């Protein structure tokens, strides 16, 4: 008999499968029409959905509100851009980003996890602000202009290759990459480690009485979230051909939090749907008015007041009921 977490995860898997199928149809239609703008926009939406996924791991399952995930997202973007400008290799960029994210994630985790609650949020915010200021004033990193001139790359899989200049091809590659990040996250959170992390959120003081450490799982969750954010950010310069220090600003972190709350905290899949919704909404509204942040703010307020469980709080329970085995008469 599956427990509540396993049932909810199964429902999330169904919603992710629907998202993947819809995305593939979108890619096929876009390629047939020769579209570039919407495929690029969809790719960007998936990248920022990966950032939101990292926020949801901390907020939804560990109970830690990070206001500084932009630190790792921007870090991944800059490391990827620097590597690509030296050697245009997707695998080298991702490998370097992974290594740096683990090291910086450990350092950041040791600092941030010394406190709880609002102090954790403020420390993560502070670390991101410090990093943003350093990058903004470092000429070797392009300073306020960022890094431009990231080359077009071909991602070689042996049997086939995908060019970052191909709107449909790179969209599908990004979709597959974000899906892998989701699948790994869902797997880890459905293991005993995931149960322990959730127990920390429920009541941290009781966990030691069960014979478990509270430091290691919390730090591990923090590093996993940092790695996911950095790897998602590493795709950004491949898409846009440049990186900007704005990726490290609070706006990036704040949008990720809004995305998670709108989609549904503690659902994982809500981060993906919320990321796509927010990115598309910003683009559509931004084409009519420069005050699109007002609309985003109103959306966040509506989600908090009327949809405390987000969009997935409405959709996922219905999927769970559909997946429940019917009792035999």
Automatic annotation (TrEMBL):
Membrane-protein topology: Multi-pass membrane protein
Pfam families from the UniProt entry = BPD_transp_2
GO MF entry, a single one:
branched-chain amino acid transmembrane transporter activity
- Taxonomically, the superkingdom here is Bacteria
Sequence intervals crossing the membrane: 12-33, 45-64, 70-86, 93-112, 143-162, 168-189, 209-236, 256-281, 293-315
> One Gene Ontology cellular component annotation?
plasma membrane
Q: Which InterPro entries match?
A: ABC_transp_permease, LivM-like
Task: Write out the coiled-coil annotation as residue ranges.
Answer: none
Say if the entry is tagged with keyword Cell membrane: yes
- Its name, as the record gives it, is Branched-chain amino acid ABC transporter permease
Origin species, per record, is Undibacter mobilis
């Amino acid at each position: 008999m599956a427990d509540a977490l396993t049932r909810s995860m199964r429902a999330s898997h169904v919603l992710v499968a629907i998202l993947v199928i819809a995305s593939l149809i979108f890619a096929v239609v876009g390629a047939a029409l020769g579209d570039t703008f919407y495929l690029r926009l969809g790719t960007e939406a998936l990248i920022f959905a990966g950032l939101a996924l990292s926020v949801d791991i901390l907020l939804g399952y560990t109970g830690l509100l990070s206001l500084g995930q932009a630190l790792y997202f921007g870090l991944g973007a800059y490391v990827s851009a620097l590597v690509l400008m030296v050697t245009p290799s997707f695998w080298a960029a991702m490998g370097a980003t992974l290594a740096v994210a683990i090291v910086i994630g450990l350092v950041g985790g040791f600092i941030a996890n010394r406190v709880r609650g609002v102090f954790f949020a403020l420390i993560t915010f502070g670390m991101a602000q410090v990093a943003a200021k350093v990058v903004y004033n470092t000429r070797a990193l392009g300073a306020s202009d960022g890094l431009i001139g990231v080359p077009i790359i071909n991602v070689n899989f042996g049997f086939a290759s995908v060019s970052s200049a191909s709107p449909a091809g790179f969209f599908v590659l990004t979709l597959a990459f974000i899906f892998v990040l989701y699948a790994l996250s869902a797997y880890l959170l459905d293991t005993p480690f995931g149960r322990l992390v959730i127990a920390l959120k429920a009541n941290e003081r009781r966990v030691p009485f069960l014979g478990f450490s509270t430091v290691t799982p919390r730090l591990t969750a923090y590093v996993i979230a940092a790695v996911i954010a950095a790897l998602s950010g590493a795709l950004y310069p491949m898409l846009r051909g440049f990186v900007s220090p704005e990726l490290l600003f609070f706006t990036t972190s704040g949008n990720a939090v809004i995305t998670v709350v709108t989609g549904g905290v503690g659902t994982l899949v809500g981060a993906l749907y919320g990321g796509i919704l927010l990115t598309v909404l910003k683009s559509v509204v931004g084409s009519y008015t420069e005050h699109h942040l007002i609309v985003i703010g109103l959306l966040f307020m509506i989600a908090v007041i009327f949809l405390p469980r987000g969009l997935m709080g409405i959709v996922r329970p219905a999927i769970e009921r559909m997946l429940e085995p019917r009792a035999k008469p």
